[in-house]
């Protein structure tokens, strides 16, 4: 089956530093990748959608300059949280989809970010 | 505004019984419907998808779709304690994006 990996699985950083999270599709080419954020006891919140080779499309209210997304290849997308603050502490999850049609999204295991 | 509605629960079901989870959606143009399961602290995993009206069965799980009434449901037969999780309904819109429900927390009581 389709496997998506995410690295790191958890990270603790100091306020003001930047953190990069990697998302890889291991056995398929991910035409589209999605980045979600989930706060405790809340549902998934889509942050941005990225297609390989093009700029990410951010959801309303998500700061482009704070959450930098790069989808450089068909198997790798990265999310960089710049100048992280405690309110950025959350569970960040990526998902990947092969193709543009009604195919299911396959989720990575998530990254737990804690900003001190 | 495209919306997907789910009862947040918790829904408590005795072990061995049938758990019924429901989801309604607002966009009549929706074409694809997904059920994901999410354990606490984990990412969602796909359980089933359905595209056509009617029932689709996979083991203990049955997805039901009624496009006229704009609802989709998930039945879990012979519920097990390991089925305790939050179940997320997602609906694919005409732009191939998923619109997510807030999830229903299911508790299976031994």
Structure keywords:
heterodimer, A: 116 residues, mainly beta, seven-stranded mixed β-sheet, four-stranded antiparallel β-sheet, B: 110 residues, six-stranded mixed β-sheet, five-stranded antiparallel β-sheet, 0% helix, 55% strand, globular
Describe the structure.
The complex is a heterodimer of chains A (116) and B (110). Chain A starts with a strand and ends with a strand. By secondary structure, chain A is mainly β. In chain A, strand 4 and strand 5 form a beta hairpin. Chain A is globular and about 40 Å long. Chain A is built from no helices and eleven strands. Chain B starts with a strand and ends with a strand. At the A-B interface, strand 10 of A face strand 4 and strand 5 of B.
The H-and-E topology of chain A, N to C, reads as: EEEEEEEEEEE
Mean of residue pLDDT values of chain B: 94
**Strand portion of chain B:** over 45%
Major pleated sheet of chain B: 6 strands, mixed
Q: Could you report the average pLDDT of chain A, rounded to the nearest whole number?
A: 91
- Which runs of chain A of at least 5 residues are low in confidence (pLDDT < 50)? none
What gap, in angstroms, lies between the N and C termini of chain B? 40 Å
- Radius of gyration of chain B, in Å, reads 13 Å
Helix content of chain B: under 10%
Assembly type: heterodimer
Shape category of chain B: globular
**N→C terminal distance of chain A:** 37 Å
Give Rg of chain A in angstroms. 13 Å
Element order of chain B: H for helix, E for strand: EEEEEEEEEEE
Low-confidence stretches of chain B: none
Based on secondary structure, the structural category of chain A is mainly beta
Which word captures the global form of chain A? globular
Figure out the total of helices of chain B. 0
Q: Summarize this, please?
A:
By secondary structure, chain A is an all-beta fold. In chain A, 0% of the residues lie in helices and 51% in strands.
Write the layout of secondary structure elements.
The complex is a heterodimer of chains A (116) and B (110).
Chain A: E1 4-7, E2 10-13, E3 19-25, E4 32-38, E5 45-51, E6 57-58, E7 67-73, E8 76-81, E9 90-97, E10 106-107, E11 111-115
Parallel strand pairs in A: 2-11
Antiparallel strand pairs in A: 1-3, 3-8, 4-5, 4-9, 5-6, 7-8, 9-10, 9-11
Chain B: E1 4-5, E2 11-14, E3 19-25, E4 32-38, E5 45-50, E6 54-58, E7 61-66, E8 71-76, E9 85-92, E10 98-100, E11 104-109
Parallel strand pairs in B: 2-11
Antiparallel strand pairs in B: 1-3, 3-8, 4-5, 4-9, 6-7, 7-8, 9-10, 9-11
């Amino acid at each position: 089956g389709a496997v998506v990996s995410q690295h790191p699985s958890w990270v603790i950083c100091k306020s003001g530093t930047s953190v990069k999270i990697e998302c890889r599709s291991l056995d398929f080419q991910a035409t589209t990748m999605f980045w979600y954020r989930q706060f405790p006891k809340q549902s998934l919140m889509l942050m941005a959608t990225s297609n390989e080779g093009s700029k990410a499309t951010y959801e309303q209210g998500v700061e482009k300059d704070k959450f930098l997304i790069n989808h450089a290849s068909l198997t790798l997308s990265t999310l960089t949280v710049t100048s992280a603050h405690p309110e950025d502490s959350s569970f960040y999850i990526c998902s990947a989809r092969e193709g543009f049609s009604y195919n299911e999204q396959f989720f990575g295991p998530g990254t737990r970010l804690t900003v001190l | 505004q495209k919306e997907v509605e789910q009862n947040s629960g918790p829904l408590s079901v005795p072990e061995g019984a049938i758990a019924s989870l429901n989801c309604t959606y607002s966009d009549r143009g929706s074409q694809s419907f997904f059920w994901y399961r999410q354990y606490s602290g984990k990412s969602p995993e796909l359980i089933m998808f359905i595209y056509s009206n009617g029932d689709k069965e996979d083991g203990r799980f049955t997805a039901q779709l009624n496009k006229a009434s704009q609802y989709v449901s998930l039945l879990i037969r012979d519920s097990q304690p390991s089925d305790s999780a939050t179940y997320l309904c997602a609906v694919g819109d005409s732009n191939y994006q998923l619109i997510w429900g807030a999830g229903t927390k299911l508790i299976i009581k031994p």
